[in-house]
């Protein structure tokens, strides 16, 4: 069940995405980026983000999961890995939400082994109080409390990704 008013509205999200994209464009002036969203959750955020980034970029994708409905399993499954050559590239990893940090840490370590020129991480949401693994975040949309969030790409059981805003989700016993 989606509760109350949006946690962040469409306008609030779009304004923040533009601010982050401006910061990224400034930081990488004169350079080229390889932007890698982590699917599935980051697809909507990443598509808005790259439309606002003003430096040349290429894209690749990683698909990974660690969540079963509303709980972290603590184990990361990699469903699809990068195909672009990462060595000596400026990589920008884009994540929907950083919770325990396990997923991002796993993917970051894998990418670092491929020796990129730089590796920056951009997360839309940061649930900092849940962190178990310390992973460096370079760009953050919003820091949020320990609530389960859906919408704008984020899901519960693969549902609600299409909501254009972010909402708090409360589990109902009869939710399917
Ligand atoms: P972590 O590995 O614990 O940091 O979990 C990160 C992943 O768990 C995210 O990429 C999401 O797929 C999922 N996740 C964590 N919190 C939420 C949430 O509040 N809503 C939806 N998915 C979440």
Structure explained in plain terms:
- This protein has 176 residues and is of the alpha/beta class.
- The protein is built from three helices and ten strands; from the N terminus they run βαβαββββαββββ.
- It has helices spanning 10-27, 43-52, 102-112, and strands spanning 2-8, 33-39, 57-59, 62-68, 71-80, 90-98, 118-126, 139-143, 149-150, 166-169.
- Strands 2, 3, 4, 5, 6, 7 and 8 form a seven-stranded mixed sheet that branches.
- A hairpin with a 2-residue loop joins strand 4 and strand 5.
- Helix 1 (10-27) packs across helix 2 (43-52).
- The longest helix is centred in the first third of the chain and has 18 residues, at 10-27.
- The structure holds inosinic acid.
- Inosinic acid binds at residues 41, 66-67, 72, 95-104, 148-150, 154-155.
Largest sheet: 7 strands, mixed
**The CATH top-level class label:** Alpha Beta
By helix and strand content, what is the structural category?
Answer: alpha/beta
Number of strands: 10
Please, how many helices? 3
What sequence of helices (H) and strands (E) makes up the elements?
A: EHEHEEEEHEEEE
Low-confidence region ranges: none
- Overall geometry: globular
CATH architecture: 3-Layer(aba) Sandwich
How much is the average pLDDT? 94
Count of discrete domains: 1
